[in-house]
C-alpha cells in the first residue's frame, strides 16, 4: 500500500486520472433494518480454522453469536448520505455489504490492477485498512494515525484471485470526529468505455410501488450522470400516471421519463419493449432492467454501470436481491442452471436468507469467496447494448426463464454474467409463494423445456424428461390437478413448434386462468370458516403424525400405497367434509395422497382451498402425461433443431415490434 498526497476526494489526480466507481454511503431513510448493510458496529469476525475446530474455542464470535448493536446503543450517528459522526472512543467498521470494496470481482473481470481509497475526516482519528482472502480471513493492511482532512491509499488487487474484499475502520481516539466522505476509484485508463444506461421498468397494476421507485431514481444526484431515460412499460389497467404523486416523480426525473402502454405481455414482453426502445433511441450503452415492486439502492445502479464500463469485454452485470420483508437478509447471492436437469438453484457454497444483522460480512467466510454465476434475475440486471445486437431480445415467453435463458444465450457468444456485490435491490422474496401450483405452472413447465431445447448439452435433454414426469406424478399424488392440467397444456403447446410463442403471448394467460379455475384445488377462499370441521373416516395408523419417509424403502412404500389409493373410489361424505386441515408447509404428496379430501392453506397464508381426490382425473392425467413425455423425448432432436433455427427470428427486435403493434393499447382505453 502506498499513501498518496492529499487531494480533494472528488477531484481527479493530475498525474493519474481516476474514476470514482463506488462511494461510501449510508441509508437513504431511517430504516434501522437496513443499517447493518452500511455500518458494522460489532466486533464480530470469522473464526480461524484451528479455532473453529477446537472445542475449547469459547471466545470466538461465530456466525450465530455476532452481537446486534444499534445506533441507539453506540456513540455513532449518521449525519448524512455520506457522513457519520463518531464521539470520542467510538469505533465503526465499513466492512459491510454496501461499503466494502469487492476486490475479487474487479480482479477477475477487469484489467484494473489497483483501487484508490479516499477518506476525508473532520479531525484526528485512527484509520485501519483491512483486506480479506477467499477463506474469509481478515488481514490488516495499514494503521494510520490521521490528523484529519483528506488521505488517499492505493491498494493493489493482485492478491484477490479467488475472493476477498477491502474495507476500513475508524477509531475516534482524540475527541469527536466525522467521516465527511469516502470513495473507491480506479485508473480511468483501464475503462473500456464511459457508458450510460436506459432503465426499463415493467409494471402491471402496481402503480404505487412503481411511482415510489421513480421517486428514488430521481432523488439521487449521481444517477443523473449515468441514466439517459427511464422507460415505464405499463401493461395494466391501474395506471402509473393516475397516481396522485406521479407528477412529482416525473418532475424529479427532469424529462427523462417515458411512459409506454401496451397489452399485458408479461415480464418478457415488457422488458423486451424496454430493450427495443433503448436500441432504437441509440443513446445508451446499457439497458437496466428493474422489477416494478423493488426498492433500489441508487448507489448500486451507479456501481453496476461503472463496473460494466471497466469489464474487459461486454458483460451483463446483475444485482443481488434482499428481502423486502427482512431488509438485512440477502435472499439471492448467486444462481446457476444445472445443465443435466435444467433447473435453477443457488450456487454451491452460498446460503439464502443470510441475515447481515446477526452475521456481518467479517463473520461470514462464504461471502468472501468470489461467486461466478450462470445468470442473474431481472429484478436488477444491466445488459450491454452489444448483447442485444448480438443475441436479440428476450424470449417471447410471458414470464419464467426469460432472464436465465437470456444469460445462457449471451454466455454462448462470450458475454458473461456477473452478480456484483454492492449492487442490489429489495424485493418481495418467493419464500411465501408456490407459483409451481398456481397459473404460473404453465409457464414454469413450457419455458423450462424451451430453454433446455435451446441450450441443453445432453442427448434428449438429459434428466429433464424424467424429472418432469416425476413432477406430474408428485402433483397428482398431492391432489393438485389444476397444476397438472396446465403442465400438460404446456407440453402440448411446446410440441406445436416455435410459431405459437409470439402468436399466443398476449392471449394464453386468459385461457390458462380459465382452465385452472375449473379445478376445486384452484379455488381459494379468504373466509377461515368456509369449510366445515374436519372428520376422518378412520384414525391414523398407530397414532403417528404424517411425516416424510425416512429411508428409500419407506419412501417407496408410501409412494406405492398412495398411488394405489388413487384408484379407489372416494367416500361420498369426503366431498363435503374434509378429512384434515393441512398447513401449506405440510402439503406434501406423502400426506395428501393418503387422504380423500383436505383443506389446504395457500402458501402466502391468506386463504384456503379444498383438495379432493379424483380417481378419474388421476388415471386420465397420468396416461396423458406419460404419452406426452414419450412424444417429447421421441421428437427431442427434431424440436431442438426447429427451436434453435427459429431463435434468431422470435427474439429479433423486428418480430417483437410486430407483437407490440398487435398488442397496442389506445391512450383512452
List keywords for this structure.
7-stranded antiparallel β-sheet, Spore Coat Polysaccharide Biosynthesis Protein SpsA, Chain A, 3 domains, alpha+beta, GlfT2_C, glycosyltransferase, 18 helices, 10-stranded mixed β-sheet, GlfT2_N, 669 residues, disordered N terminus
Number of domains: 3
Structural class: alpha+beta
Task: Calculate Rg over CA atoms.
Answer: 27 Å
> What spatial form do the alpha-carbon principal axes imply?
globular
Distance N to C terminus: 63 Å
TL;DR?
Pfam families: GlfT2_domain3, Glft2_N, Glyco_tranf_2_3. By secondary structure, this protein is of the alpha+beta class. It has 18 helices and 26 strands.
What does this molecule look like?
This protein is α+β, with helices and mostly antiparallel strands and 669 residues long. Helices cover 30% and strands 22% of the residues. It has 18 helices and 26 strands. Helix 5 crosses helix 18 and helix 11 packs parallel to helix 16. It is globular and about 85 Å long. The termini are far apart. The N terminus is likely disordered. It holds the Pfam family Glft2_N. Belongs to the glycosyltransferase 2 family.
Layout of secondary structure:
Elements (H helix, E strand, L loop, with lengths): L1 E3 L13 E6 L25 H5 L22 E3 L5 E3 L4 E3 L9 H7 L4 E8 L3 E8 L5 E9 L2 E8 L9 E6 L5 E11 L9 E7 L3 H13 L7 E8 L11 H7 L4 E5 L4 H16 L4 E6 L3 E2 L1 H13 L5 E8 L5 E4 L2 E4 L4 E4 L7 E2 L24 E5 H7 L10 H10 L5 E11 L13 H15 L8 H14 L3 H16 L3 H5 L3 H10 L34 H14 L14 E3 L6 H4 L4 E5 L6 E5 L2 H20 L1 H15 L2 H10 L7
Parallel strand pairs: 12-13, 12-15, 13-14, 17-23, 24-25
Antiparallel strand pairs: 1-9, 2-11, 3-4, 4-11, 5-10, 6-9, 6-11, 7-8, 7-10, 15-22, 16-23, 17-18, 17-22, 18-21, 19-20, 25-26
Organism: Demequina sediminis
Family: Belongs to the glycosyltransferase 2 family.
Pathway: Cell wall biogenesis; cell wall polysaccharide biosynthesis
